[in-house]
Amino acid sequence: CSRMSRRRADSHGSLGPDDEVVPYSDDETDDELEPSIDEQPEGLPSVSQLSGKVNCFLCESIPLCCLLDLNWQVKANDRSFCKQPQFQKKFFLCFKRCKYAGNAIRTYKYNVITFLPLNLYEQFKRAANLYFLALLILQIIPEITTLPWYTTLVPLVLVLGITAIKDLVDDLARHRMDKEINNRKCEVLLNGRFQECRWMQIQVGDVVRLKKNDFIPADILLLSSSNPNSLCYVETAELDGETNLKFKMGLKVTHERLQEESQLQSFDALIECEEPNNRLDKFTGNMLWGRERFPLDLDNMLLRGCKVRNTDECHGLVIYAGSDTKIMRNGGKTRFKRTKIDYLMNYMVYTIFVLLILVCAGLAIGHTYWYQDVGSRAWYLYDGLNQTASYRGFLSFWGYIIVLNTMVPISLYVSVEVIRLGQSKFINWDLQMYYSEKDTPAKARTTTLNEQLGQIEYIFSDKTGTLTQNIMAFKKCSIAGRVVRCLAQGHNGSKWVDFSSNIFAEKKFQFYDHHLISCIQSKKDKDVLEFFKLLSLCHTVMVEQREDDLVYQAASPDEGALVTAARNFGFVFLSRTQDTITISEMGTETTYEMLALLDFNSDRKRMSIILRFPDGKIRLYCKGADTVIYERLSPNSKYKDVTQEALDVFANETLRTLCLCYKDISRADFDAWSRKYKEASIAMRNREEALDEVYEQIEKDLLLIGATAIEDKLQDGVPETIAKLAKADIKIWVLTGDKKETAENIGFSCQLLTDDMQIYYGEDVNEKLSMRQNSRRNEPLGKPKKIKERFFPEGGKNALIITGGWLNEILYEKKKKRRRLRLRRLGKKPSPTSPQDSQPMNDHEKELRQQDFVDMACECGAVICCRVTPKQKANVVNLVKKYKKAITLSIGDGANDVNMIKTADIGVGISGQEGMQAVMSSDYAFAQFRYLQRLLLVHGRWSYIRMCKFLRYFFYKNFSFTLVHFWYSFFSGYSSQVAYEDWFITLYNVCYSSLPVLLVGLLDQDVNDKLSLMFPKLYLPGQQGTLFNYKNFFISLFHGIFTSLIIFFIPYGAFLQTMGQDGEAPSDYQSFAVVTASSLIITVNLQISLDTSYWTFVNCFAVLGSMAIYFGIMFDIHSAGIHVIFPSAFKFTGVASNALRQPYLWLTIILTVGISLLPVICIQFLCKTIWPSVGDEVRQRSTLAEEPPKEKPTFQRGARSRRSAYAFSHSRGYADLISTGRSIRQKPRARRDAPESIKEAPQAENI
């Protein structure tokens, strides 16, 4: 039962952090943290004492900058101010530059001068490239060279050139994007008038003019706008992916005095504010103008990346430009990402280097002893050089380094780049990841990470715009105990209601409950009428008339959905003034006098409005979360039990619920309450607490009308995608800045959370971690460490929901920051921490605490982190990478996700929205979250399997090829003599064996895409890294050793004391080289045929074509004609035709190939029959269809009742603007004709 009735944490009543507040991130400057009471310097009052005195300006005697270090100074209309010596900073040695950045942004890596040296430097950081450069230098030395220099130079130039061209193309795309942004136009006040300038020419201190639909070029202080009280609406899709509007407001003094161009020209204020930082939700500063000081906060700032909406014109002062802006600061450091296979391949190359040196050293020692015993005594081997045996051994060492260099073929890196490029193109061309509604295809923005997509263990996802559409739909309601479905579900063939009589109804709105419509039209059911009248009156939505349309601007999409629902049923919100609100009730226009508006906040979780009806009656309408409404209902209220049951049903369907109620108030009671309300409204201290207390006095004895249920629409296919990925053992964490209730509700909606899960919150996590920390501290020193105990030994399904405040508390981030700030202000050194307090004793203990948190979270089936900052998102990702060594993927759609996207091993951006900041920083982009399962389970798995198969085979074929030289050296006096012809060595990896393995790396499939999605368990080998590791590497090595043994010694035995048909012994070195080379080519091409799972015409053509090319080229270069033209380069004249006409040698080739492949065929047969892999089993069961998913019942008896998030604004609404009249132009004239249509604009939310 305890699991069913899980207690929620009350953060306000505990000593823990506030769950409703986005915490400070640990990367802030110390100047950003306001000192607490115990941190105040002596002689200065606290900030709370000053806050009551700060309304329009601060007292000059105690400026706020004395308490907060406001080191960033900006002088309006004065570009030279920022160039003064005190604003210079060192950037290299003794060179200085201005600390104020220009507005040009730079995301590219190279320019014309730096491209060649910087790109070559980056490429030669690869050990293989550096190795081949050293090899090329060795081949130029005549005394040790055994192969022509061009055998290394041509492939090296090819590799460097292809990689450089790819890097150049990528960087040119970044150049074009930067150029496009930097050359956008904006009006800047220069020389007394506004002039059109490029963004890159804007400087700190400039006054700019922006118009409707303009992007904001920098972080700007709003001075004035064409709207009342200098309101300015902005769309923040670039920042957070949300399309609902948010409003900003200029100071009253600037609104009144800075409207005209001449007034703006004479504006000379000095702005003192915080240093540039990445906090999107915070800004602190002062404006000194004349002899007065005015406070500034985030409400006065327009941030770069936002878009001006519903505002004809506005003026602002540039505070931060370019790389100093908040959106650029949130970008995080661009990291060079490499795959796990890349690192593994590098280590294997190092292993081959070591083996190569050991083999060459052994052969060099062998040559030394051989020369002493044999070579120096054989007169026919005398070369005229009087060199010692040791020196000859030294030269032999370097000669073998050259001969055996193909153990690390440079063509490996070219082939890998080609395969990755092809796999990226397949992702781009996948029509099943194309979103036709917005004409958005999937896009692989990098070509280096494809196989990593097949190894993902953790996914970190944003919520808004990633899992959800950020669209609210009025789904169901309960009116007087009767549940009504408001959307087209389960209508059982009933006819839709005809809404043609309601000219305000949405054209797409469909409804089938004729009984409800008849109740509304007959006006007989009082409860139904009161229900929809409340929805049309109790809100803070503002309306603007544009030609024949009414445009709603709501504080959140929730409120817009409620008001729109009322409109569809005939209760249309038309207009409002400072003290009236007008609606149309079934065609009749009625105006109500608004006596008070009791706005929503996160503590109250409700809002109310007190109205005087035309007949003089006073009524309070209230809507709010059921947890707070039921406490305030009258004992005589009806429908409580039946509405509670409806709320349980709605909650189990993961809908966001809201209770509606009302109360009639007598004139005397209202007058008495109104006096208290006015007194609280003008209180200088603790005004909000006083208002809340007064609100409590009137919001009681309420009568319940019903409840609404709003759906926060998920993107299509989100639950199915999460379920599929979970079956693939991929853990999904949601990291969002939303409220805890909202995030938890979405967790249930997308089936990340289920009813059988035990949910742990921040205080539970902190308690468990503290217990583990205390037990660790109490362990006696020197005692051997026990095996780590599980945090949830009882098993079962567990989930973790933690807020950003608790995250800082648990990981010691905020405590560390506060403590450092306090000590710095008091001028003291840090004192040692005692085990009794909650501080970490040292950095090691902090790391252990972080590791404990990661271990606990990874034991859970689901993790949701809410109210987290962009920096915290990145920190969470980094913790999992650090302590779990896991491959991570982050997916998001806004600028607040950029840091997280860059930190993860793979970053995915949701494209198709207006906010493209996440996409520009991502590695892969597509339009819908559901495409993630195809990206990982199909393209990622295929890419991983193909790359692993390619690498295993590539190492094998080169070991088989190169080690023949090693066996040959035992019969050539260890003299660095090659076993093949020079041209065969040059063309082996280029023409003879490259195409079949390249096609396997591009096209091979163990199962098709449908089976890959049907059986997610196929993804597990990639996570476990079982297809390519050191075990596979050594298997390829020993396989290559075995093949090289067979290829050398069988022809050697066949040539030994042999007589040909013509009576001559074909035992010459050149004929032997032809036979071994032919055996090798046929063997390696048939071997890749055995490893190919998916045959196409192209694969077949490549295998047969490679062997045909070999024989064709061999006969050509062994011909007499080419020997006549280039006698020194082609010395095997007539060898191929002479050797291959001998049937005995063909039998030798067939025997060699057969013995090389027979063990492989036997092993593959045994493995597939006795030890089949998951892919083998799936291929055998490929005819089976996936079982249809079982539908869960709508309501489960005994299931835990979820109180879903209250379905309206999560921050303060427009009540202040409405009640003060600041947003009202004038009272609208009475309309004779109703507008033709009313449409809902993107919703607005105050930040």
From TrEMBL:
Mg(2+) binds at residues 462, 464, 893, 897. This is Phospholipid-transporting ATPase. It catalyses: ATP + H2O + phospholipidSide 1 = ADP + phosphate + phospholipidSide 2. Its EC number is 7.6.2.1. InterPro entries: ATPase_P-typ_cyto_dom_N (IPR023299), ATPase_P-typ_P_site (IPR018303), ATPase_P-typ_TM_dom_sf (IPR023298), ATPase_P-typ_transduc_dom_A_sf (IPR008250), ATPase_P-type_domA (IPR059000), HAD-like_sf (IPR036412), HAD_sf (IPR023214), P-type_ATPase_IV (IPR006539). One of its GO terms (cellular component) is plasma membrane. It comes from Denticeps clupeoides. GO terms for biological process: Golgi organization; phospholipid translocation.
